[in-house]
What does this fold into?
Amino acid sequence: MKKALITGVTGQDGSYLAELLLSEGYEVYGLVRRKSRLDFGNLEGTEAKEKVNFIFGDITDMSAMVNAVKESDPDEVYNLAAQSFVAQSFREPVASANITGVAAANILEAIRTVKPEAKYYQASTSEMFGGCIEDQGDNFTGYTEKSFFHPRSPYGVAKLYAHWITRNYRESYDMFACSGILFNHESERRGHEFVTRKITDAAARIHLGLLDHLELGNMDAKRDWGHSKDYVRAMWLMLRREAPEDFVIASGETHTVREFVELSFKALGTEIEWHGSGADETGTDKVTGKTIVKINPKFYRPAEVDLLLGNAEKAEKLLGWKREISFSQLVEGMVKNDLELLKKEAGKI
Ligand code: NAP
Ligand code: F7E
It folds into this structure.
């Protein structure tokens, strides 16, 4: 029986990855932070929670990571733990650097000293590319493993450190250490602070009469969105290879935040009409004329990632990876899930 250690097991990806590895017959160990209130995040209420062996520790603590590797004796280590919210990284640049960046070295060093033959996966990100239109030039067909990096947030800068230290351990110590450069991926388990879940939750609330309108920042930003379930499969496939290599994982489509809003409301039978531009833009319900979307500049970022589009050709060829959940299925699934959750909640009251 193979053994895997997952940091960030309570998060969106960590919970789906734990379920995938358990279904593949792995013994799964999950690193959990000590909190004042015991909380297993996205694993709460799942069958996986009963099967995962939890180890308490913080990835910023080197000794905790040595203990975690000793206790789990893993064949594979997936480092998914991070301060993963880009907007927050502008408010907490140093904490983000320590958790999202430098802590990767704690884990790599723990593996090197305790179990150097263990395979390591680093959760790298499309944020490292930065998405500047000027960088992309004409005939841009998407970022690949060979594209250059230009991170536009403290989060992106921190992730770039983790990305390079992973490559450095591979080249210096011949360790199986690789990175998946994953583009945005969402799901019914996405945190409510991210734009997709904020939109699907608000659309469901507005539909049920629980919220007046939704407030957003930059609706022109474009993202390459996929489903987390498809993306965690790619992580596992990367560690099944004979030799470590980095891979871009993306859907190959890009959509604006505005399109995500339109599709979310459409899933509930509401068509939106847009008026004005910039901070004055509003979205109204085509039938009732009521304003249901407004701009609030407080959600703008000091530096924005304008357009993300990935090219996952290498992963498709060498890993046999293909996404199975389309953009419209992703949006509809998230909206329906939020509607059900809110109805259940209302039933309880
Ligand atoms: P997420 O839902 O925010 O989960 C982050 C996880 O990290 C949580 O389990 C959190 O634990 C844990 N964590 C945070 N700080 C920690 C610390 N100091 N010590 C130990 N654990 C800590 O993130 P996600 O969306 O699943 O993403 C997984 C990874 O992929 C992250 O590294 C993210 O940066 C990266 N990534 C995500 C995307 C995406 O679009 N989702 C794209 C590219 C890369 P708590 O439950 O205690 O908070
Ligand atoms: O923002 C715009 C915002 O916070 C997406 C993380 O998983 O993916 C994620 O980072 C876009 C940005 O995700 C609001 O300005 C407009 O352009 O959902 P987000 P993100 O920043 O792309 C990458 C790949 C990761 O690695 C990260 O860990 O939406 N936007 N209005 C808004 N964003 C938010 N959050 N809230 C708004 O009201």
Q: What stands out?
A: The pocket of F7E (ligand 2) is lined by residues 84, 86-87, 125-127, 183-184, 193-196, 198, 216-218, 221, 223, 257, 299, 301, 304-305 (CB under 6 Å). The mean pLDDT is 97.
